[in-house]
Structures are given as C-alpha cells and as structure tokens.
Amino acid sequence: MAEVTILLTCAGQRVDIVRAFRHELATGPHRGRVLVSDLDALSPALFEADGVVALPPVDDPGYGGAVAEVCRREGVRIVLPLTDLDPVVLAEAAPLVAEAGGRVLLPAPDVALGCQDKWACHGMLQAAGLPSPPTWLPGEVDHATLPYPVLVKPRIGFAGRHIHRCADAEELAFFLRYSPVPSVVQRALVEGVEYSIDCLADPDGRPLGAVPRAMLQSKGGEQIKGETLDDPQLVDLAVRVVEGLRLIGPCTIQCFRAGDEILGVTDINTRFGGAFPLPQAAGADYPGRIVAIGAGERPESTVGRHRAGVVMTRYLDQTILRRTPSGLAPLGAG
Fold first, then answer.
1. Residue 135 — pLDDT band, cuts 50, 70, 90?
2. Closest by CA position to 304, among listed 212, 202, 204, 203
3. Can you give the residue range of the structural domain that contains 47?
4. In sequence order, which residues have a C-beta less than 8 Å from that of residue 79 and are 6 or more positions away?
5. Final residue belonging to a domain, choices 61, 89, 104
6. 315 burial class (0-12, 13-18, 19+ CB within 10 angstroms)?
7. pLDDT class for 331, splitting at 50, 70, 90?
8. What are the tens digits of pLDDT across the range 259-304?
9. Position 160 pLDDT exceeds 90
10. Residue 262: CA count within 13 A, CB half-sphere
11. Is residue 334 scored above 70 in pLDDT?
C-alpha cells in the first residue's frame, strides 16, 4: 500500500475538497496526508487539513521552486490548485516538481494559460474543431454587423467579475471603457441553456470521468443549486474537449446548448469546479482516482457511468476558532 501525500494550493474555502481527500486517504486502499497552502491565515481549509505549508505569493518568482521544495521535503506525490490563481505557474513548475518526486496534475503551460485567457481559449477551441461562441478583441469589432446582445468579458477573470451584457453599441462602448481589465467581446448565447461538465483526465490526457450538471442557481459565479444529468451529448462534448486540448487533471467545462445544438464552450477551468460535492455525490470519486494516480496506478475510465438525478442545494457553514499562544485552533480543541 503506497503512502500518498496530496498538496492542495490556494485552498481558501474549499473545505469540501480537503475533507473528501482526507476521507479517501482514511478509508480507501492508500493512506497518506492532505497538505494545504494559503496566504490568508483565516482560510477555513487550513483547519481541515493534516498540515499547512508556507508558500510565497503566487506572483513571487520563487513560487514554483517553493512548491517543488515542499514536495521534496514532505514526500508529496500530487499537486493540485484549488483556484484560478496558480494553475499556469504550477504547470510551468511541473518539471521541478517531478524532480522532487511529485506530479502536477495540470495540462501543459500553454494549455493552462489558454484555458484562463478567453481570447486564447477561443482560438484553441476553434483550432481543435470544437464549438466556441463568436468572439472578438475590442479593436477588431465590426460594429455594423455585431450580433447584439454581446458580453464584455475579462480575458482573464474569475468568480463572474467584470462581465457585462450589452444591448447596443452605446452600452458596448461604455462597458469597454468601464472595465478595469483587458476584455473580449463575445456573442451572448441567449437562446441557449447553460450547463457544466465536471471532468477528470489522467496524466496522459485520457478522460476518466465526465459528469454533466444543470446549473439551477448560481451566486457570484458559484453554483449553489444543481442536478446531475444523463446526457450523452454533453458527455461526448466533454470527452472531445479533454482529448482535443489534452487536458490533464480535474477540469470544469461550461457550455450553452439550444435543443440538440451545442452553441459553444464558454469556459474551461483547469481545477475542480465550485460544485465539487455534486459530481462526488453522483459517484465520480475523483479524489480516489487522483490518489490512485499518486500511488502509480492507472485508474479505469468510468465516463458516462455516474448517477443522474442527484440534486445539490448549498448553504452557509463556518469554522469557529480561538486564539492560543501558538496560534489559531478550532474552538474546543485541546
């Protein structure tokens, strides 16, 4: 039985993911630890892990080297980002991490960057023959033929920030001036319904799972109500995206569909989706597969074998702490 230590970076509020990995390592065929990092000393995930490691800010030139050193020192087998802050940096650091005995479960750096940059992602999807909504750089918009409504989206963004819907040229000009970040203009797929597909691919880019879900309600870019679907068309789309872009590790694909027509893939996140508990409850068992990869195994693909009709509704929860001479600790801990 191999010992598998997992490092989850920028762990923030992802208590659900930390708990899932700890449960897998406590009850599954492999034992190990879950280590986390976060710059915020009050990040809830820090108090759910087996250990906390100190890393510099993501934009520090030494970030990748520091991750590799943690892998060497702690015997980390798998490194996963939990936010959109560091996938590109970690992908670039993958050779250093490999020398230290670990593995970064991310695609190549250019693909990781392309999935974050809306303009680059549009180009990658088109080059792979995959559907992408009509998208333009602001300076290349033909205002005479632009199909309103359109969206102004940040080229690199997260949590639904700086996205604005424009009904006409006047609104478009205003929001392009108003947005504080570089943007793209994208046709708003108002005739379609939005879906997400939670996926996992092994280090060879082989799809291991693809769980489509209806996005019943979201707040601030985070899904709070959803339902898993029996939808072969969405599963097939996810497999084509994973294979076409050579995605690796967990990823979430968002798309719009009208009837039987896929209108376009609108987002690809190279990390677990915000609705992680839903595919987990539907039998995806992505933590178990990832631990198996860390143990040197080659998990079987279960694409299309999830449970449909699993519904999630989320609520607020909290971690209560107390200050001690040695730092913060859960209230009631010895």
1. very high
2. 212
3. 1-104
4. 6, 7, 9, 67, 71, 90, 97, 102, 103, 104, 105
5. 104
6. exposed
7. confident
8. 999 999 999 999 999 999 999 999 999 999 999 999 999 999 999 9
9. no
10. 22
11. no
pTM (2 d.p.): 0.94
Q: Say how far apart CA 289 and CA 291 lie, in whole Å.
A: 5
Can you give the pLDDT at residue 215?
92
Measured distance CA(53)–CA(35) in Å, rounded: 7
Nearest to 282 by CA among 306, 311, 253: 306
CATH number of the domain to which 160 belongs:
3.30.1490.20
Q: What is the pLDDT of residue 161?
A: 78
Q: What is the pLDDT of residue 2?
A: 75
Domain count, the chain: 3
Does 155 lie in the same domain as 167? yes
Q: Examine the domain organization and report whether 115 and 179 are in the same domain.
A: no
Query: Looking at the structure, do residues 199 and 123 belong to the same domain, yes or no?
Result: yes
Q: How many CA atoms lie within 13 A of 257 on its CB side?
A: 18
Map residue 309 onto helix, strand or coil.
coil
- Pair (173, 196) in one structural domain: no
Per-residue model confidence as pLDDT tens digits over 230-254? 999 999 999 999 999 999 999 999 9
Domain harbouring 26, CATH code: 3.40.50.20
Q: Which helix (H) or strand (E) holds 117?
A: none
CA distances from residue 243 to 172, 203, 208, 298, 315 in whole angstroms, order as listed: 35, 12, 11, 17, 35
